[in-house]
Structures are given as structure tokens and as C-alpha cells.
Amino acid sequence: MLKRLLLSFSLLVLAAALVSCGSGGKQTGTGQYFEVFDITGKSHRSDEWIGKQPVVLNFWGTWCGPCRKEVPDLVKLYNEYAPKGIEILGLAVRDRPDKVDSFSKQYGMRWVMLMASRDIIIRYGVASGIPQTIFLDKNGREVKRFIGARPYETLKTGFEALLKDQAESR
């Protein structure tokens, strides 16, 4: 009986964590320091990017339908805003590096691909679902956050907010 109860509870927790386009949840983690591995197994620290330039954290997964849907818009936005100094960090959630590598190459996702650890998911309050896109200014402060897939025009408002913030801080 206890085993069945624990199994049921575990499945509920897992289901809640896998819900795409989650809603709400406490928003935490502005500019949190983290260490993660990229898809080649190389270790990276968040301060390689955060605190040096505007950064967009995109929590996603190759298995996530809504995530896959917004990829073409993110590719277009990356091509528009990377030359203006905004970097995207793709943080793959509950995924395999080989799948992330293959998918990102197939769809032209030329930004840094990292493997999101449980720790970073908690620190950034992403347990409510993916995709989540968090816009951090050059000082690491959260400027905007979108929970769930968003169309090009909506995502663009986040990139524009970073540019505006960058211009005001000069």
C-alpha cells in the first residue's frame, strides 16, 4: 500500500513537472549563478554570459511540442538580435545531448546549447513547465519572462525591452 502511494505521488510530481505551457508559479532566480554542461560535455559557468551582456534564457526540450513550435521564431529573433549584442542560451530540460545537438543543427539554432540541471530549473522557477523564456539585462536582472510558447511578435517585445534597457544604461 505504501509503495503504491509513493508511486502515485511520484507520478503526480513527474506529471506536474512535465506540463508544457505551465501557468504561474513563483518567479525566482534573477541572474542566478549556475554551472552546467553543454551538449559536448564541457562545463560552463553562467558568468561567462550573465553580467556581461543581455542574455535570453530559453528553457525548452526536443520532446516538447510547444517548444518546437516557437523554434523558428527564436531562430529569426536570434539572427536579428545577436548582432546587437543579445545572446540566447538554450537550456534543454530532461533531454539528451545527442538529441539536442541533432535537433538544434537541423533547425538552425546557432546559439549556445546547455543541459539544464535540476538545480537551475529550481533556481529559475521553471518547474511549472516549459517553454520558458527569461530576458536578463546586462547586469543579470530579469526584465521579462514568458511562460509557454509565444509567437514572434510577443517574443520580440522581450528582445526590444533588453535593447531599451541597454540604451538607457549608457
Describe this structure in words.
Helix content is 39%, strand content 20%. With 170 residues, the protein is α/β, with parallel strands linked by helices. A seven-stranded mixed beta sheet has the order 2-1-5-4-3-6-7, covered by helices on one side. The radius of gyration is 16 Å and the shape is globular.
Features:
20% strand; 170 residues; 5 helices; Glutaredoxin; 7 strands
- Please identify, by name, the CATH architecture: 3-Layer(aba) Sandwich
Name of the CATH first level = Alpha Beta
Domain count, please report it.
Answer: 1
Mean pLDDT: 84
Number of helices: 5
How much helicity do the residues have? 25-40%
Widest sheet: strand ordering:
2-1-5-4-3-6-7
User: Which fold name is given in CATH as the topology?
Assistant: Glutaredoxin
Distance between the termini: 63 Å
